[in-house]
Amino acid sequence: MKVMKFGGTSVGTPQRMKDVAQLVTKSGEPTFVVLSAMSGTTNSLVEISDYLYKKNPEGAQEVINVLEKKYMAHVEELYSTQEMKKKTAEFLKKEFDYLRSFTKDTFTSFEEKIVVAQGEVMSTNMVTNYLNEQGVKTVLLDALDFMRTDKNAEPDLTYIRENLARVMQANEGYQIYITQGFVCRNAYDEVDNLQRGGSDYTASLIGAAMLADEILIWTDIDGMHNNDPRIVDNTDAVHQLNFEEAAELAYFGAKILHPTCVQPAKYAGIPVRIKNTMDPDADGTVIDNVLVRGKIKAVAAKDNITAIKIKSSRMLLATGFLRKVFEIFETYNTPIDMITTSEVGVSVSIDNDSNLTRIMDELKKYGTVTVDTDMCIICVVGDLDWSNVGFETLVTEAMANIPVRMISYGGSNYNISFLIREADKKRALQNLSAKLFN
Question: 295 has which bridge partners?
């Protein structure tokens, strides 16, 4: 069985939902489908929650009314029979009345998670009803029956595997199985969500639990490209990536995937393929455990980076210096992206500067601190093992006329990273494409 995931834009209109129905039934084989909320819906639900936090039920009611009108119009366009139009309209009416019920009581983060989850509840019901109207034997499985996180907010893999097997056994004989992405329960049985990767994470977890043949992530682009197509002309979709390479690209700016969302598939050895709903015949990008030797695959960029340098001659050869530096960032829950060291100092980069002032105050206890803002990390990904003689030279030659603040090489076998000014990003990406791919 294959697992297919469709994002918000893929189910964003009645016609897109019909296109999804064609894609999932094309093979005629049993398929497990994970759906996101219709594009724009989650933003509206977050806006509703924001009004309710601010004790403004009238504002929330207005957003609910606008969203309901949009959905009811979709019902008329999506279904051909009066029976299914009536069934779906009645379901949606109950959903929006349910959302209105939150305007009457105290609103907390617990209620917010329930509200935000309703987008997936609505999209999955609508597509399930459409497929059944078309004569396709389809069942909707509630993600809350088998998706759960543990006390560390990490997926409870054993629980997911056991309960998904139970639910599937109780629903044998269907061609299409549909469930909600993003939604889960937490260890305390409350409605929650998979924060990192959302629906992609759901698909990866389900694929791993079921030992699926393949996980297909359907989106609005034909795979992960070898550079940013918004900045560089004539980029190409990368045919194949190793899971480690894909994670590096995702972390350093390729927003088509969250860096952790494919980890369950990686450990289960299940390939993940990224496909384009607008061009379903395109090959897309397959992500698996195969490493193609001697090849540079792609370039990505991560914006809004801040560089921090801590210099102190008092710390020359002193033990514990790095530990003290890292503990400060840990205290303020601020991950470090890049790091370079010398005998008398250390430079790091971060992408979250919300606690920058307090971090600097702490760091000044140990040395002189300087900060560079509006920086950007350029990441080159591929088989960059140190034994590949000349690869690092090829990359640095492309950056020859770009001022570089930091270079990170050797921490991974899959990337070389450069910290540069954001103002130089476009030129750097274009230079790297010309040197490495053209």
Answer: none
